[in-house]
Amino acid sequence: MIEVRALTKTYGGQRAVNELSFTAPAGKVTGFLGPNGAGKTTTFRCLLGLVAPTSGAALIDGRAYRDLASPRHHVGAVLESTGFHPARIGRNHLRVIARAAGFDAPRIDPLLELVGLQSASDRRVGGYSLGMRQRLAIAAAMLGDPEVLVLDEPANGLDPEGVSWIRRLMRIWADEGRTVVVSSHLLAEVAQAVDRVVIIRDGTLVTEADIADLTADRVTVRVDRTDAMLDALQAAGADHELLADGAISIAARDTAEIGGIAARAGVTVTELSRRGTAETLEAMYLAVTEAGGQ
Amino acid sequence: MIDLVAAEGLKLRTTRLLLGMIPAAVAISLAGVAGTVLVHGGGDRAVLESAKGVRQVLSATGAGAILVLVVGIIISAGEYRYGTADDTFLTTPRRHQVLAAKLAVGSGLGLAVGVVTSLASIGIAAVLYSTEGATFPLDDAEVWLTLAGTLVYTALFAMLGVALGSLVRNQVLAVTGALAWFAVVEHALVNLAPDVGRWLPAAAGQAIIRTPLDGLLSPLAGTALLATYAVAIALSGIRVAATRDA
């Protein structure tokens, strides 16, 4: 499990991460979402001991990264900034890490096969594509068979097939009981794969929720006379919200009930639907990114 | 710690760095020795066979150490140049252990280069002495003391480089800075203030390899001084690595 507690990181007076708290439990894929520059990478670097927090803490199973007995065995990380020596062959990149981590008989060949690099493993990394480097970084993260996986924008540089491969991998890891945290600035990349979302903006937490909890029924309705419908919903005591595109979103009601309210108010319904989890999440994330862009 | 040293050795062996640098270091040393025999000797047997002459010739073996210093810098600063430092510190969050392993590998490399260049130097010196009509005094203690000094000198220069690269993470800056220091700055300082000069790193190095110059420290004092420089810079590097964000 990952626990971030009131984490703050200041760079030259600028707060990259501001009093951020969230948890990522074992057995779930937690999506760590936010626009570019929201503080996702800084949060990960604090969590992994690469950067010292200004205040607060980021803990892995209750411990700071540097206090883990065998970090590579405990945590696997794929960071955007991870570099490779261009003259080193892919296999040797993994051998170096395994040697330093003290893994006696690292399973390098099965890992190379798993990430689809077996035929490129004896080529210099300098000649690898972005996607191949990303695959090598994933193999490196998995060397220690870690219980916690931290992935910073892992889909970058991967083709659609690669992105779907990452999603499947994360699902398998979580189902095996591992803790998986994946960051992305694109909701669509991870939406299908996550069990839980943590959304941040400007280094601050916006939302932290399990996807299961987002499925609270919401009904979306479009009518010819929106004002009359809003009045009628108000009178009926329904928790509702006018969306930017002119539709009305209503909480925890079934569609028949809303149809009834519309009929009694004498308005014509042009569209009536129950909003699914994906749409709810998308609307939530859109609100965050749009607010960030203002 | 053994794993870390092995990993640092593996890092060094899995790039092409040594392929270019080691032959170049040996070549520079050999050129230095050959040049000294031909120029310094000037065809005069007595000069060549004198203790001072032997020291003059063999101390040129140390010339290759400057490239070993560069390798040392790349061992440390190269991790930042290629962005592999993240992976290194993820594996070993206690960063002083990484530097200790790098110092160990660097000094081992320096010793190895010292052995190779020393043997090659004796070979070429013996050949050139005979072509000059002189006899290379292989049984002279001067020969072996100077070559022992070369081993120490090369190992300490490698450690100095590793330490320097940990302090100055910009590899290009560290390499050019170090070369400028040893080629220009220290000479200028020595000329300005000879009393201070003997305490500077290059002069300490010259003392170790028993270069026949006036005013140098004893070889042992030079060793202690150069080692102190390396350790002091390494400690600053550890401080930087521990406090600065990677």
Write up this protein.
The complex is a heterodimer of chains A (294) and B (246). Chain A has 294 residues and is α/β, with parallel strands linked by helices. Chain A has 2 domains: 2-211, P-loop containing nucleotide triphosphate hydrolases (Rossmann fold), CATH 3.40.50; 216-275, 2-Layer Sandwich (Alpha-Beta Plaits). Chain A contains 11 helices and 13 strands. In chain A, the strands form 3 sheets. In chain A, strands 5-6-7-3-8-9 form a 6-stranded mixed β-sheet, with helices on both faces. Chain A has a 4-stranded antiparallel β-sheet with strand order 11-12-10-13. In chain A, strand 6, helix 6 (160-175) and strand 7 (179-184) form a beta-alpha-beta unit. In chain A, helix 9 (226-236) packs across helix 10. The longest helix of chain A is centred in the last third of the chain and has 17 residues, at 277-293. The radius of gyration of chain A is 23 Å and the shape is elongated. Chain A starts with a strand and ends with a helix. The mean pLDDT of chain A is 89. With 246 residues, chain B is mostly helical. Chain B has one domain. Chain B is 80% helix and 0% strand. Chain B has 12 helices and no strands. Chain B is globular. The model of chain B has no long low-confidence stretch (mean pLDDT 89). The chains are: A alpha/beta (294), B mainly alpha (246). Chain A binds chain B through residues 45, 48-52, 65-66, 68, 71-72, 75, 77, 79, 81-89, 92, 95-97, 99-102, 140, and chain B through 3-4, 6-8, 10-11, 14-17, 78, 82-94, 243, 245-246.
